[in-house]
Amino acid sequence: MSAATTVVIVPCSGIGKTYGTVSREAAYELVEELRPQDTRLVALARLVLGDAAALDEIASHPAITIDGCKLACATKMVGECGGQVAQSVDVLDAYRRHRSLKPQGIAVLNENGLALARTMAEELAVVVDAQNTASQQEVQHA
Amino acid sequence: MPDLPQRKVGIVACSGEELSEGTVSRLAALKVLEELRPADTVTICLPLFLAGGEGDRAFARFYPTITLDGCALRCAARGTEQYSGKPAVSLVVNELCAAAGLEQPAGRRQLDAAGQRAVDLTAERTVQAVDELLGKSWSRRSGEFLESLAADPGLPVLGDNPAASSAAAAQTAPAPVAEVATCACGSGIPVQTVEVAGEQVTLVALPLIFAQQYADGKRPQNLEPGALLELVRIYNPLPAEAEAAYRQSIAAAYAVYCASQEADG
Predict the structure, then answer these.
(1) Residue A93 CB: number of other CB atoms within 10 A?
(2) Three-state secondary-structure class, residue B82
(3) Phi–psi pair at A28, nearest 5 degrees
(4) Closest CA to B41 of B112, B126, B111, B117
(5) B188 dihedral zone (left: phi>0; alpha: psi -120 to 50; beta)
């Protein structure tokens, strides 16, 4: 891996419940707003299909998975594809830690849902930074 | 009557988070599921074909399925066929837009106006397909359409076949474990784990079969031998050499089910 490590972000693909939407919103917030230079979104559907480019991205970069439920499809898929999961987070766990941010809505999240996603993204930005710091230290020691 | 999803159509969206067209596929699916045909459609998220269990992988055999893909990779259509069953209809958002002369959508997180039009168009085409599929007969044994229901006596019209069970076997049967695989898309076909010859075996749709049989007045003492097994076989591959053991375990589990229903009053 190079000094400027790209972290792959893999959210849940669930479409029928709020937590899936929060996971996706957190991923977009992280990739588009907070760490656009350091992260890249990979769609879970491409991993299901075994798309070569997606598998290569997973194999070449650490991944952060954001799951919408305990079935943990994103984390399982990255693992099965041979990827290294640097951090896996679950929306329900995040909600338990931030009880005031009860998410609602599926196609469109309520304000609390957006705030929960933003909070998760901020927490994950720290993980991305840590990955970069570790990578830079590896290069310096090499 | 149990809520057997015989007359429903499955929708599988690629939900591709990387592309605007993926967002269109997801929102179009939601529009059909929640607004346009809520009583006629169900969904599952694509990754569950791998990350889930047998109940999830049975999805496209259980329901004639429409896949909604954002792009030519057709992850939903190919993934569904590879892991579950061949989709009845495959729609691709960017192809629909091109054919209708619509601008390509933009804004994967927040769709632009063209994206909203693409959602409407994709949902409209999906509804057309749903309505067409509901008018056809579907075999869950083969995961294909039939020309007529009467042509296949093995159709999963649960309750048509009388079934047998062994009341004596019920006395030694372990309590069945009922499960429903669920995910963030809230779907999943009910499964139940039973013990067959000392092994724990998960059988797809067993709770539905039991509920339908019970609702039809079938009880362990008036079922014909082998019929429950035939219903179970529609949804589950059963090894020929273990048929007797399966027959006994399923009959025993059904006796336990009936007893629990009667106890519940």
Answers:
(1) 13
(2) helix
(3) -65, -40
(4) B126
(5) left
Please identify among residues 194-253 of chain B the ones whose CB lies closer than 8 Å to any CB of chain A.
none
Single-letter code of the amino acid located at A51: D
Instruction: Indicate whether this complex's ipTM tops 0.95.
Output: no
Compute the average pLDDT of residues B136-149.
64
A103 at B interface, C-beta within 8 A: no
Is residue B13 pLDDT above 70, yes or no? yes
Is A54 within 8 Å of A42 (Cβ atoms)?
Answer: yes
Q: What burial letters (b/e) apply to B205-230, b meaning 16+ CB within 10 Å? A: bbbbbbbbbbeeebbbeebeebbbbb
| Domains in chain B with CATH codes | 5-151 (3.40.50), 167-264 (no CATH)
B75 vs A14: CB contact, 8 Å cut-off?
no
- Using CA coordinates, name the residue in chain B closest to A22: B184
Using an 8 Å Cβ cutoff, are A38 and A92 in contact?
no
User: CA B210: distance to chain centroid?
Assistant: 17
Going by C-alpha positions, the residue among B5, B10, B1, B133 that lies closest to residue B60 is: B10
For A53, nearest residue in chain B (alpha carbons): B73
Whether A15 sits inside 8 A of B13 (CB atoms) is yes
Place of tokens 């809505």: A105
Query: What is the model's pLDDT at position B191?
Result: 83
Return the CA Rg of chain A. 15
